[in-house]
Each structure stands twice: as C-alpha cells, then as structure tokens.
Amino acid sequence: MELRQLRYFVAIVDHGSLSRAARVLHIVQPALTQQVQQLEEELGTTLLHRSAQGMQATDAGRIFYEHALAILKQVADAKSAVNQSTNKPSGTVALGIPQSASGALAFPLLSAVRAAFPDIVFQLTEELTGNLTEQLASGRLNLAILFDDGQLGKFNTRALVEEDMMFITRANSQFSCKKKSISLAKALQVPLILPSIQHGVRPRIEQVVRDHGMKIDQVIDITSIAILRSAILADMGATILPVSPLLAEIERGEMRACPIEDVKLSRTVSLCSSKNIPLTNAAMAVEKLVIELSRELVKSGKWLGAEMLDIQP
Q: Where do the HTH lysR-type domain residues begin and end (predicted)?
C-alpha cells in the first residue's frame, strides 16, 4: 500500500467522480482506476461503487476513508514538524470544538490564530463530542475541546474553565422562572429541550439529576444546537445548558438565563491532544493560544458563566 493510493482514494471520495479526481490529481483516469483496483485487491474488499450520484464509498470504503485521512494528516504533520521553525510556526493545525462550546470560543479563536500565526493553516471543526473524540484518537485532529466526563484518560488533557449550566428560556416565555433563580425540581417540571446523548453536556445533566433522586419526565431530544435554539425561541420549552451556545440570543435579550439555585450543575471544559501522536510546533503554538484566549475571555466577562481553572499556559 502506497501513500499515493491513499491520496487517490480520498480524492475520488471527496469529488464523487473518477474523472474529476483525475483532473485534480493531474493523472489519466485509467491509471487512477488501476491504482484503486490494486488497493482493493490488497485489502480484499470493494471500496467504491457507482451510483446515480457518481462514485461513492461502500461501507468498507467509508471506514477506510477515515483511516486514510488520519494517515495522510499524520504524514503531513511529520513533514511540517521537521521543516518548521519554533519562532515562526507554520503548517496545518486541526482543532475540533463541540457545538455547545463554539459560541464562546470559535470566532475569537479564529481571529486570534489568524492575527498571531499567519503562516498556520487553521482548520476549525464543529462536531458532536463523540465524533471529536474519535477524530482526536485517530490523528485527524491535533487538538480538541472536550468536556471532562471522567473518560479522557487516553488523552493529554488540560482543564480550561468550569462552566455553570443555567435554566434558559425565551424572553417572556410561559416557562420563565419567576424569580432570579430556580430550583432543579421546578426546572424539571417544564418541557426540557436538551441536546441528544451524543453531546457531552447531556450525560452530565442526567447524572446530576439522578444523583439528587430526580428524573427528567418531559424531554425533547435535539441533536443540532441550531434547531434547539429555534425550538426555544418558538417557546416549545426550556433548556438547561451553559450560556455559551446561546450567548448571542441572551445578549440581544431574546432569551433569559436563570441560575439553578440549589444544585451545582457545571461542566469542565478541557483542551485535549493525543498521547501517542506528538504535537507539531504549530499545534503547540495554537494550544498555548487557546489557554491564553480562554483566560482573556473569562477575565473580560465575555465567556459568561465560566470560571478559569488554575492552569499554566
């Protein structure tokens, strides 16, 4: 198996066409077809099939595609690590961030990396927590923002902030808390719109509820934070979340965040990297910048409901 075969296969999947991939790769189509056939013979399985939509990966092909991406990324990182300077880091850095944390970090981080490291190609991926964990473990991501649920032992982990979760409704909602705070029991009496179990925040909420001898009776499971936001604005119910994913709506007065008075409901936001794949100089520079930026956002009050943990940059 050769690296060029991995690149060829990835290009076909990405472009959905042998002819388009051949043009991008600057090789003739028969040669591309031959390389894919050799790859399939070596693996003993079919990786691609034709459909009305073009060339598509089979089930085995989709699995192989993920591994091929990870391998190609690690090779690129290795080359970058050899060639780059510690004074002027360059190369590609891929960082994953959960949907429920992107509101606080994503745009400030994009701006900060562009300003501080113009030679770094920064790839910011927003995904479900479970997907980020898999991509970080496989090497497709250099860094990931994850929530410490006690299952991060396989990664190098640096705790960033502790985020309080609040009871959030539409402004003037029928479900709004009547006082400045609300008890967990009362919060659980209204229909709750919560991220699905694949989100790192949901297991934390359910664990705290169980620990206090309660249960969630009325829940609407939604995978997308964008759809969850729309459901709250439509006054279909309330949610229990950190402020960060709904920060813009709260600041505009479209939503109201109410503290939970009798239970400490929070999550630890951590910056993680692989224990097995070393960070490039560029990735280490971004890692340090994430820590510094988190401190600035908390100190300035722009990361609402967050408390900086005692870590060294």
A: 1-58
CATH class of 162-267: alpha beta
Class of domain 3-74: mainly alpha
Instruction: Please answer whether residues 132 and 96 qualify as being in contact, where contact means their C-beta atoms are separated by less than 8 angstroms.
Output: yes
CATH number of 85-159+272-301, picked from 3.30.200.20, 3.40.50.720, 1.10.287.990, 3.40.190.10 = 3.40.190.10
**CB neighbour list of residue 219: distance below 8 Å, 6 or more residues apart:** 191, 192, 193, 194
> Which is it for the CA torsion 181, 184, 188, 194, positive or negative?
positive
pTM for the model: 0.68
- pLDDT for 84 equals 61
Counting as low any pLDDT under 50, the low residues of the chain are: 313
For residue 156, the Cα-to-chain-centroid distance in whole angstroms is 17
DSSP character string of 88-132: S--EEEEEEEEHHHHHHHHHHHHHHHHHH-TTEEEEEEEE-HHHH
Q: pLDDT (tens digit, 9 = 90+) per residue, 6-21?
A: 888 888 888 888 888 8
CB 270 within 8 A of CB 146: yes
pLDDT computed for residue 313 by the predictor: 44
